[in-house]
Amino acid sequence: MWEIIKTSVPEILIAGLKYTIPIAIISFILGIIIASITALIRMSTPKGNPLKKGFWHFLKAFFTFYVWLFRSTPLLVQLFIVFYGLPSIGIQLGAWTAGILTFSLNTGAYASETIRASILAVPQDQWEAAYSIGLPYHKVLSRVIFPQAIRIAIPPLSNSFIGLVKDTSLASSITLVEMFMVSQEIASHNYQPMLMYSIVAIIYAIFCSLLSLLQLYLEKRFEVK
Question: Which of the residues 62, 83, 141, 200 could staple to 98 if both were Cys, CB 3.0 to 4.6 A apart?
Answer without folding.
Answer: 83
